[in-house]
Design brief:
By secondary structure, the chain is of the alpha/beta class. It has one domain: Rossmann fold (3-Layer(aba) Sandwich), CATH 3.40.50.1360. The strands form two sheets. The chain has a seven-stranded parallel sheet with strand order 1-10-9-6-2-3-5, with helices on both faces. α7 links the parallel β9 and β10. The structure holds fructose -6-phosphate.
Length: 256
């Protein structure tokens, strides 16, 4: 695990955008696992600017998103399809047919889960998976209690997740109750993982992830077992760390 501590959201986003840019600028096939939510917005912004300024060829880039709400039209302003168009896809030349999100309106949602896994497999797996983290330790929409061996599946969103996401909707009632998400096994299969965290609301979950014991009660703790995990977090998100964990980060700004 590599932990990069930065001062604030802006610095977190700059570092993350630079890392993501390296993957797409190499000129060889890259499969990006993408996240939505508030955390990566600025990262996408900066990535878009860099790609536009450097006129980067993205014909070799494929994307697979972590999750999507069930029952929201793709054109709904809060659907993750819409989010990705707004923040990334419409601004950069990734061929449309190379961008994938789970279809939360599929007639047979169980079939859609299988289909989504097949897409990821057919691409040869994810090269780098971008993740945020829920205040309850969820990754993707894998809520506390999700078995670690699950692949793409359907979930009931935790009340706290719906409350956290209500800020994007007109009211809590409008936040969908169900979603389709890559499972923890799917996420763990990614070759590299980049997790971003900003703000005090993530401090407890991040403390668990970095120094807690691995437990399904806090899904993000499974990432301790991933061979290539980088966390970029700001001071507020790291504010609950014990002195011991903090000094390890400060000494080397790397290992834990
Ligand atoms: C988003 C996702 C979620 C978010 C998490 C944090 O695709 O899978 O796990 O990363 O809920 O959300 P924000 O960034 O809004 O705090």
């Amino acid at each position: 695990m590599i932990v990069l501590e930065v001062e604030n959201y802006q610095q977190m986003s700059e570092k993350a955008a630079n890392i993501m840019f390296q993957y797409v600028a190499e000129g060889k096939k890259a499969v990006l696992g993408l996240a939505t939510g508030g955390t990566p917005v600025k990262t996408y912004d900066l990535l878009v600017s860099r790609i536009q300024n450097e006129k980067t060829d993205l014909s070799h880039v494929h994307t697979v998103n972590l999750d999507e709400y069930i029952g929201l039209d793709e054109k709904h302003p809060q659907s993750y399809h819409h989010f990705m168009e707004e923040h990334l896809f419409q601004h950069v030349p990734i061929p449309k047919k190379q961008t994938h999100l789970p279809n939360g309106n599929a007639e047979d949602l169980n079939e859609e889960c299988i289909h989504y896994e097949q897409i990821i497999e057919s691409l040869g797996g994810v090269d780098i998976q971008l993740l945020g983290i829920g205040a309850n330790g969820h990754i993707g929409f894998n809520e506390p209690g999700t078995p670690f061996d699950q692949k793409t599946h359907l979930v009931d969103l935790a009340p706290s997740t719906r409350e956290a996401n209500a800020r994007f909707f007109a009211s809590l009632d409008e936040v969908p109750k169900k979603a389709i998400t890559m499972g923890i096994a799917t996420i763990m299969n990614s070759k590299n993982i980049l997790l971003l965290a900003s703000g005090e609301s993530k401090a407890d979950a991040l403390k668990q992830l970095i120094e807690g014991s691995v437990s399904e009660a806090c899904p993000a703790t499974v990432l301790q077992k991933h061979p290539s995990l980088t966390i970029i977090a700001d001071e507020a998100a790291l504010s609950s760390l014990s002195d011991e964990a903090r000094s390890k980060i400060n000494q080397s700004n790397v290992s834990c």
